[in-house]
Amino acid sequence: MKRPWDALLGFLWVHVYLVTGMKVEQSPSALSLQEGASSILKCNYSSAVRSVQWFRQNPRGGSLTRLFYIASGMKQSGRLNCTLNAKELFSTLHVAASQLEDSATYLCAVEAQCSLVICSLPPNCRWACSTSTSPGGHLPPQQPVQFYNFSFLLQ
């Protein structure tokens, strides 16, 4: 059965995990766009972070693919562009000229800055932390990470 691919209809689901009091909020709460249009996913967070990572998971599940690791400024890879505004406490993922294959679950992982506070991950977050999430390898289990999930489903 053929589906009409002329429109990409995206619904965003948000899974927010509180880590050491940090809150992450998503905007927009829902997204509907035509194929070829550009979109912006935004993660706002409540306190300073060391870095932000953006991941992608295909609609059928499977492993996470890291799209970006960013500690400041902007990075680009093909039609994807990632920014981190540490002063304004947000990160964005721009998808230019969206295509059907962009349909996926996108996750924003925020690494909090902790000094004298003992930080730990909530149990329901551990699965995502087992993937390679930093340039040098795995995040240590005590490292605070805030995961934020955007899911796009086609209809």
From TrEMBL:
* One GO CC term, this protein: T cell receptor complex
The subcellular location is:
Cell membrane
Q: Please give the subunit comment from the record.
A: Alpha-beta TR is a heterodimer composed of an alpha and beta chain; disulfide-linked. The alpha-beta TR is associated with the transmembrane signaling CD3 coreceptor proteins to form the TR-CD3 (TcR or TCR). The assembly of alpha-beta TR heterodimers with CD3 occurs in the endoplasmic reticulum where a single alpha-beta TR heterodimer associates with one CD3D-CD3E heterodimer, one CD3G-CD3E heterodimer and one CD247 homodimer forming a stable octameric structure. CD3D-CD3E and CD3G-CD3E heterodimers preferentially associate with TR alpha and TR beta chains, respectively.
Q: Which InterPro entries match?
A: Ig-like_dom (IPR007110), Ig-like_dom_sf (IPR036179), Ig-like_fold (IPR013783), Ig_V-set (IPR013106), TCR_alpha_variable (IPR051896)
- Please state the protein's primary subcellular location: membrane
Entry-linked Pfam families: V-set (PF07686)
Tell me where in this chain the Ig-like domain is found.
22-111
Which keywords does this Swiss-Prot/TrEMBL entry list?
Adaptive immunity, Cell membrane, Disulfide bond, Glycoprotein, Immunity, Membrane, Signal, T cell receptor
Give the signal peptide, or none: 1-21
Q: Which domain of life is it from?
A: Eukaryota
Q: Does the keyword Cell membrane apply?
A: yes
The lineage is:
Eukaryota, Metazoa, Chordata, Craniata, Vertebrata
- For this entry, the protein name equals Ig-like domain-containing protein
